[in-house]
Write a structure and sequence with these properties.
disordered N terminus; two-stranded antiparallel sheet; 4 strands
Length: about 300
């Protein structure tokens, strides 16, 4: 990319400066937009607020439950002690799940995002263009302890609230990791570097409505009149992950990506790739693959990706 050009397009504040091209393991070039640092901070704050509210509600519920049980077993000291220990264990398990399970469960889901990320329109993705693995999600979230929670412990546990050596070390530690995303162009935190992930924008497009108005969605090209109908064996080679990738390609509409994906799918299903009608082919394949996957889900059959 040339350094010359309009500053409005390539300024750090512009979305164009955050555009990237990634190549999937299938050789498909996909354009993505790296999430802004502000969106990531906003998502983290929203997630912490959600966690705090959930913890507050659970604490009130546990207090109410403990009070009710005390009324029932009043005067029985052994039962009171046992009940208190049991409720404390439940509360500690809930704290553990909120600290670790919240982010892991949400980012391991099909959307790759916590509620905070979904509200701000971003998601976690693999930097190599492949599927977001459980190992990557676990690694990036365990690193949050080192980046955020451990230095905060040093600060909060300073003797008498005084800022001693441990407090200064914790503050430097905290500032170092908080500044990390500002020293790389992709706004990666240390957990992203270790896990091979990044956070990208997740546009809320509705491709299905567009396809339903075009002839290709039913298998017929409005450009050439060619009929595209795919059999069960041809549609069975791909799953939900590949469907989402195809949706992004069609939504972005980059000619190079459309041609590359068209050739890849043709080779995969044993068709001879032609030229000039790639979008109609992909729209037909998308519509029929989506219909097949949705039909399978209605009967409890789910194919997450081509390896399933």
């Amino acid at each position: 990319m040339s350094a010359a050009g309009t500053a409005a397009i390539y300024s750090p504040m512009g979305a164009s400066s955050r555009r990237r091209i990634i190549t999937t393991p299938e050789g498909i070039a996909l354009p993505v937009t790296v999430a802004s640092r502000g969106a990531r901070v906003g998502a983290l704050i929203l997630d912490f607020v959600i966690q705090f509210l959930a913890l507050l509600i659970f604490t009130i519920l546990m207090g109410w439950l403990f009070g009710g049980l005390m009324d029932v077993i009043e005067g029985m000291e052994d039962q009171v002690a046992g009940t208190a220990e049991f409720l404390i264990i439940i509360y500690l398990i809930f704290l553990f799940l909120m600290r670790y399970g919240y982010f892991l469960a949400c980012e391991l889901g099909p959307r790759g995002a916590t509620p905070g990320k979904r509200i701000t329109g971003i998601r976690v993705a693999a930097r190599d263009g492949g599927r977001l693995t459980a190992e990557a999600v676990i690694a990036r979230n365990l690193l949050r302890d080192i980046e955020l929670f451990l230095p905060l412990v040093f600060l909060l546990e300073a003797p008498g609230g005084a800022m001693g050596n441990a407090g200064f070390a914790g503050l430097a530690w905290f500032l170092l990791f908080m500044a990390f995303p500002f020293f790389n162009k992709d706004a990666l935190r240390a957990g992203d570097v270790i896990a091979g992930t990044w956070v990208v924008e997740a546009p809320r497009g509705k491709l299905a409505e567009t396809l339903s108005t075009q002839g290709a969605a039913s298998g017929t090209s409005s450009l050439t009149g060619a009929q595209y109908e795919f059999g069960e064996a041809e549609l069975s080679v791909y799953g939900e992950h590949e469907l989402q990738t195809l949706e992004r390609v069609l939504r972005d509409g980059t000619e190079e990506s459309i041609i590359a994906v068209h050739e890849t799918i043709c080779r995969k299903i044993g068709w001879e790739p032609g030229a000039g009608d790639e979008r109609a082919f992909l729209e037909a394949f998308y519509a029929q693959l989506r219909a097949r996957l949705e039909g399978g889900m209605r009967f409890g059959k789910r194919k997450r990706d081509k390896f399933s």
